[in-house]
Amino acid sequence: MIRIQSILAATDFSADAQYAAERAAIISAATGASQGVILHVLKSSWLDNLKHFANLPVEVEQSMVTNASRSLNQLIAKIQEQTGFAFEPRVFVGNVLDMILKASEDFDLLALGARGENPLRDFALGTTTEQLIRQSRKPMLVVRREAKTAYRCVLVAVDFSPHSLTAFAYGNVIAPQSEIYLTHIFEAPFEGKMRYAGVTDEIIQKYRIHARHEAEAEMKGFIETSGIDSRNVCRMIEHGRHVPAKLRDKVLEIGADLVVVGKHGKSLTEQLLLGSVTLHLLTECPCDVLVVQ
Length: 293
Known about the structure:
By secondary structure, the chain is an alpha/beta fold. It has helices spanning 15-31, 44-53, 59-83, 96-104, 119-122, 128-135, 162-174, 191-196, 201-226, 243-254, 268-272, 276-284, and strands at 6-10, 35-43, 88-94, 109-113, 140-143, 153-157, 179-186, 233-239, 258-262, 288-292.
């Protein structure tokens, strides 16, 4: 059984990082989490370069830690006033990626902003967020919207793999009062090759109908296997050739404020590439995204 009893929110004091901390507080209230920590990491390489080239005394590092702690406490006080949830502050000095990964091992959920304090840098491949998702074994919530209320509409992307079952379970835990849309995007087997070979639209349509019936049967079995109460669950089975784009369209159509997706999909290619669907959603999805193992 999945439970969220502790949440770590990483912050660089950017707007999105504040949204992530606020969202973590709201989730803590919904799940009954007993521990919440906001972590800020001062990059050691930057501090070392500053001390070396500017010839600053060693005390500068402690002064910067003190200033960061002060800013962190102010952020925590603001969030507590807004939500009633009290976070613990932590400030580390070191490699940002390594420090967050190590700290997250002791928590059930890691939350962070979609964009950091340097938006231009965050468009580059290999950002801290992407590297964390690749290396972390913990579910990770990537927040891009201001958190005002609990999640009300959740889209769970499913391909009927074990990762999708985990995604469904997490969506139910994090947003217990929301509507959950289990969404599967299908394409008839070898549809692209059939079209390239000149197979008629009529025959391809028959294959699509058959593929839809199979997906509907799999969806039914998927929900039964999950053991989750399906009264607030809607099923969406849609045909589409480009899964990420179709999922994004469905997010906009239903007004989802959270997408939950497995870190990997069914295929070996998906596993080797982290999951092309997952990466596309993180880049293109207009709402928060929860990536689970």
